Amino acid sequence: MIIEEKPSLEVCLSPALLHLYDTNDAVVVIIDIFRATSTITAALHNGAKCVIPVASVAECITIGEQMPNSLTAGERDGKIAPGLQYGNSPLEYPPLFVKDKTLVLTTTNGTRLLHMIEGAATIVIGSFLNLSALCAYLLSQKKRVVLGCASWKDKFNLEDTLFAGAVAYELQHAFEIKDDSARAAKHLYQAASGQHLIEFLKDSSHYKRLSAYGLEKEMEYCVTPDLHPVVPYLKGKEIVVH
Amino acid sequence: MIIEEKPSLEVCLSPALLHLYDTNDAVVVIIDIFRATSTITAALHNGAKCVIPVASVAECITIGEQMPNSLTAGERDGKIAPGLQYGNSPLEYPPLFVKDKTLVLTTTNGTRLLHMIEGAATIVIGSFLNLSALCAYLLSQKKRVVLGCASWKDKFNLEDTLFAGAVAYELQHAFEIKDDSARAAKHLYQAASGQHLIEFLKDSSHYKRLSAYGLEKEMEYCVTPDLHPVVPYLKGKEIVVH
């Protein structure tokens, strides 16, 4: 009888802890639930050609000017950043609007984490919007998984960890839940799952910050599972689904 | 009517995240459940004169030689470190043995965190063994609290976070639970509290590592609340209770 060793699954709770994880030849999942990875997933499922994640507003403007059929997007303090055209909400990019366009998106936490990853087999985008599709993909790869929470300026946040916990929960029978972060994330998800996740998240830093900007509907959308069943991945400098 | 503002309570999950926290004039709690802060609490409650925490075995030996009536203690890989006299277990220091002695203790994670704290009003030692005494002390101080998890080589661990969650849970009505780490720790503690904590911790990195050395009894002791109701604090280079 051959017993196959299960690949490991780990959760990195903050970019400031990334150096503790071996991302070489692993599948790394970037998680920024409120709202970068939710928006990327929605825009690509709705037909965007690709998403180009950039760190600064200036870079976003420059690339947008050079790129035909592109949209520049990003927010600062809950409002469209000066010089850009659109915001960072999954609800802003319906199919008729975003189809075949390139979305040049500036986000701080998610983009920074994305650019920190070294040597990964694949870098993919995770959000509740593509939870089941992502889990099916991770299962199919049979490789080590590192779930990377973008967090908020390196500070642990509840919604990214909750999503990491959802993935750990779904995959626990096929993966070795390797570190205590993954175990804690799974416990957190189990503690939350008796209610709508947005209720659980109402007592969180990001919910409080973003609801002051009137973004409650957007956040509720971001924690609704499986509305956009695609698995975006990084291909060169672009995030694509095909 | 005067509404008093509640002091904040935050949880730093790893020394690698400490730079994100303002420890100036805060009460900082050092947490290293398996087993440094448990051992320190037990030894001092059992009558030790003081505990001197040091980072290396060599430093431990040097200070032990200079200090009358002292014991040198510390472990590496679950065994008494070569050159030292005793280990790092709260059960090793009963009253008749430890009374009036100075315990020179080398630990890696706890000592390192302790030495990283800057500007704190007070640095105190937290463990399940002094949970209620610690909470009563924190309530009495009416100052900001930062709970610092020593973790394991900067990696998040379950038992330190669980203890931070127990403190957050006990103090939530008198303090503002300020960051998502504190919220998550509290959720974790609530998820664990329907059972003996050691059952919850059996699926954790440290439990697995230390049980391979036969330290199950020690770990069970370390998560038993209120066996040693004292609040050790740092006074110069010594940890004392008086």
How would you characterize this protein structure?
The structure is a homodimer of 242-residue chains. Chain A is an alpha/beta fold. Chain A has a single domain, classed as ComB-like (putative 2-phosphosulfolactate phosphatase, Alpha-Beta Complex). Helix content of chain A is 37%, strand content 19%. The first copy, chain A, contains ten helices and eleven strands. In chain A, strands 7-2-8-1-9 form a five-stranded parallel sheet, with helices on both faces. Chain A has a four-stranded mixed sheet with strand order 3-6-4-5, with helices on both faces. In chain A, helix 5 crosses helix 6 and helix 6 packs across helix 7. Chain A is globular and about 60 Å long. The mean pLDDT of chain A is 95.
Secondary structure: elements and pairs:
Two copies of one chain form a homodimer.
Chain A: E1 8-12, E2 27-31, H1 36-45, E3 50-54, H2 57-66, E4 70-76, E5 79-80, H3 95-98, E6 102-106, H4 109-116, E7 122-126, H5 131-141, E8 145-149, H6 158-171, E9 176-177, H7 180-192, H8 197-201, H9 205-211, H10 216-222, E10 233-235, E11 238-240
Parallel strand pairs in A: 1-8, 1-9, 2-7, 2-8, 3-6, 4-6
Antiparallel strand pairs in A: 4-5, 10-11
Helix pairs in contact in A: 5-6, 6-7
DSSP summary, beta strand count of chain A: 11
Mean pLDDT of chain A: 95
- The percentage helix of chain A is 25-40%
By DSSP (H or I, 4+ residues per run), the number of helices of chain A equals 10
Give, in order, the helices and strands of chain A: EEHEHEEHEHEHEHEHHHHEE
Largest sheet of chain A: 5 strands, parallel
C-alpha end-to-end distance of chain A: 38 Å
Greatest interface and its participating residue counts: A-B, 26 and 26 residues
**CATH topology category name of chain A:** putative 2-phosphosulfolactate phosphatase
* Oligomeric nature of the chains: homodimer
- Strand arrangement in the largest pleated sheet of chain A: 7-2-8-1-9
* Text of the CATH class of chain A: Alpha Beta
Structural class of chain A: alpha/beta
CATH architecture of chain A: Alpha-Beta Complex
